[in-house]
Write a structure and sequence with these properties.
With 364 residues, the chain is of the alpha/beta class. The protein has helices at 99-102, 107-110, 116-125, 142-153, 169-177, 191-198, 203-215, 234-247, 273-286, 299-302, and strands at 9-10, 14-16, 22-24, 32-33, 44-47, 50-53, 58-59, 61-66, 80-85, 112-113, 130-133, 158-163, 181-185, 219-226, 254-258, 291-294, 304-305, 312-317, 320-324, 327-329, 332-334, 341-342, 358-360. Helix 3 (116-125) packs across helix 4 (142-153) and helix 8 packs across helix 9.
Length: 364
């Protein structure tokens, strides 16, 4: 094989070091790179003494999804979202469900070409309410994501970041400043899990969550992939959900998703549905008002209930809306039975996109 040819746009969030290397300051890894060397994420690299982003304008594919698939249960239910990602990741999750994208090293063959304007125009042409930056972690292509988000906002299209939240403060401010909503992957609630299973740390993720709650108006929800024997104990789930209520408030929706064997954890069994039901109940008992199950067929676990009278307000079957019983004023929702406020960003009538998944092509 020949030498790695590095091309890309100038990137932000770096500084030169006295020994001639540069330090990428996007995330807590703070990779120190010699000329021609790539960071852990593989897509940020040192080219001639400057940091470049090698995936600008390139994607692993585009697909129109229901917003519920991100998952977001309280952000314009029933609407469609144009989803895309690039390649690489700044975490090394052994259980990664998208490892073929996040660990890809053959970007030139895998990716479609698309400018920010092309993506925003495609979302508009297909009637999408929002664009989601997903599949791999969009924080590693923050500069590209911000360009796309700005083009979307010029067309009144919303922006959704789906990320693990492992980022340093400057990039965090810029990335989430371009987002209207986010789903944050809270992978576990012990630093030991983060170290052993993801190669990262828990504290920066918690800092991101507190930042979103205290310093932004981004609507965000949380997802935890429940892995048998690794992050599914009652004690850990109680600690996590109690922290969420205390630090983020009871209105942040929490999704418990089922693991299936993949990547480097093929010897771990799938998550039993009963485990997700147990996790959801622990969250509700801790004071989380909106707790959901995912990757399993569970209508009750998919449904939004009134936090006051417990009426079923938004009934879902997988990603299909089966009922919408919510009074909406502006974007604020309330229960028509008892008047209790329901946190989220809602439309008077839900979207009708349904559970479809429509791959599309952009660029050449």
């Amino acid at each position: 094989m020949g030498a790695d040819v590095i091309e890309g746009r100038p990137a932000n969030y770096w500084k030169p070091l006295p020994d001639g290397r540069i330090e990428c300051d996007l995330c807590p890894r703070e990779c120190r790179l010699r000329d021609g060397q790539r960071g852990f994420c593989f897509v940020r690299a040192n080219k001639d003494g400057r940091l470049v982003l090698t995936t600008d304008g390139r994607s692993s594919g585009f697909c129109i999804d229901p917003i519920e698939k991100k998952p977001l249960a309280h952000f314009h239910p029933g609407t469609s979202v144009l989803s895309f990602g690039t390649a690489g990741c700044n975490l090394g999750c052994k259980f990664c469900q998208n490892w073929d994208i996040s660990k890809s090293r053959e970007m030139d063959r895998l990716q479609d070409q698309a400018s920010a304007t092309q993506i925003a125009d495609a979302a508009l042409a297909h009637g999408c309410r929002s664009v989601a930056y997903t599949y791999n972690d969009p924080l590693i292509f923050t500069e590209y994501a911000i360009d796309v988000a700005q083009a979307c906002r010029e067309r009144d299209i919303l922006n959704v970041g789906v990320t693990a939240g492992y980022v340093n403060p400057e990039a965090r401010r810029d990335f989430f400043g371009a987002m209207d909503a986010a789903n944050i992957d809270l992978k576990a609630f012990t630093d030991d899990f983060y170290r052993r299973i993801t190669g990262a740390r828990l504290r920066p993720v918690l800092d991101t969550l507190v930042y979103l709650r205290q310093h932004t108006d981004v609507w965000f929800e949380l997802t935890t992939l429940i892995i048998p024997g690794h992050n599914d104990s009652d004690g850990e789930l109680r600690a996590m959900t109690s922290w969420i209520v205390a630090e983020l408030g009871p209105d942040v929706p929490l999704h418990f998703s089922a693991f299936h064997p993949d990547h480097r954890m093929r010897d771990v069994p799938p998550t039993p549905p009963a485990t997700l039901t147990r996790a959801r109940q622990i969250a509700l008992d801790a004071g989380v008002r909106y707790a959901y199950t995912g990757n399993v067929h569970d209508v009750a676990g998919d449904t939004t209930f009134c936090p006051g009278c417990h009426r079923a307000l938004i009934v879902r079957d997988w990603y299909a809306l089966k009922g919408f019983h919510l009074d909406v004023a502006g974007e604020a929702g309330s229960c028509p039975s008892c008047g209790a406020a329901v946190a989220g960003r809602f439309d008077p009538k839900p979207g009708r996109f349904g559970p479809r998944r429509l791959p599309i092509r952009l660029g050449r």
